[in-house]
Amino acid sequence: QAVNLHECLDLITRLSRHAGKIIKSRINQKKTIETKATSIDFVTETDQEVEKLLIEGIKQKYPNHKFIGEESFAAGIKEKLTSAPTWIIDPVDGTTNFVHSYPNVCISIGLAVGGEVKLGVIFNPVLDMFFRAIKGEGAFLNDEPIKVSGVKNLSDALVAVEFGSSRDEDFRSIVAHNINYLAKHAHGIRAAGSAAWNLAQVARGAIDLYVEMGIHAWDMAAGDIIIREAGGSVMDPAGKEFDLMKRRVLGSSSIEIANEVYPNLQQYYPEHD
Ligand code: LIP
Fold first, then answer.
1. For 116-141, what is the mean pLDDT?
2. Percent of the chain beyond pLDDT 90?
3. Whole-number Å distance between alpha carbons of 40 and 34
4. Beta carbons within 10 angstroms of residue 129's beta carbon
5. Is a pLDDT exceeding 90 seen at residue 73?
6. If pLDDT is split at 50, 70 and 90, which confidence band does 136 have?
């Protein structure tokens, strides 16, 4: 099944700009929230509405494509990643930010073909920052090419982390250990509340390393290709090859900084997507 990635990008740009208007118009309003996997894993009606809008819009043009969507997954629709063209969608990455009107939320959309992500879009509609990449064609922010910083040492790095959405004691202790290690050596630590945002910041050179374990394919799919196309590295946080379905990511400005950091991390292995 031949896929025209440029046509796909045009479609998804249009749909995410439309969805972005909805998110932006609601971020300062009161939301009705429900919880999903944990007591601090939230979903709002906007997450569900935006995912529906994106999936229906794509299906109209590509009725045979498959979907792995955060909210469809939560509703029990569990697609495996196959070689078929598959859209991997997080309608609102940073739902907790959205709930609290903290202005850092992203729509994150990746398109995998042959099991590999070939196209990615991350759009922060509040800050109007639109990141995109197609395999082999570089990465862009609002149509300007972007590159990773190239920083090679943790001692020169600004690092992004997240505290995750699990209250589990073992998980919290691993996160605390890793953040403590990174904070001890880096220039500084940031936790912006959205994996897609963190990956996009690595791609544009504002963050030098980001590591998180326990997130999902839809948080990482677009960021993976955008970082690689910006010249950066994406690996598993234990130093192995990145696997989109294993819920773990270490994105960085260079392979050197990734190799310095990963042996010092405590590892957490969640159930696969
Ligand atoms: C969030 C991720 C974040 C992680 C949160 C949550 P959501 O995604 O972007 O990195 O720490 O636990 O998974 O749920 O807002 O789409």
1. 98
2. 96
3. 9
4. 16
5. no
6. very high
End-to-end alpha-carbon separation of the chain, Å? Answer: 25
Question: Please, what is the Cα angle at 56 between 50 and 57, to 5 degrees?
Answer: 90
Distance (angstroms) between ligand 1 centre and the Cα of 94 equals 5
Ligand 1 centroid distance, CA of 152 (Å)? 27
3-state secondary structure of 64: coil
Strand order through the sheet with 158-160 = 188-190, 158-160, 209-213, 248-252, 233-235
Q: Which residues line ligand 1 (CB under 6 A)?
A: 70, 90, 93-96, 162, 164-165, 194-195, 212, 215, 219
For 126-171, give the DSSP string.
Answer: TTTEEEEEETTS-EEETTEEE-------GGG-EEE----S---HHH
Angstrom distance (rounded) from CA 124 to CA 107: 7
- Structure-token pair, residue 183: 């904070």
- Distance separating alpha carbons of residues 93 and 156, to the nearest angstrom: 28
- CB count within 10 Å of CB 28 equals 9
CA angle (199 as vertex; 195, 203 as ends), nearest 5: 165
* Residues 156, 47: Cα–Cα separation, whole Å: 37
What token pair was written down for 191? Answer: 């936790």
Ligand 1 centroid–CA 148 distance in Å is: 23
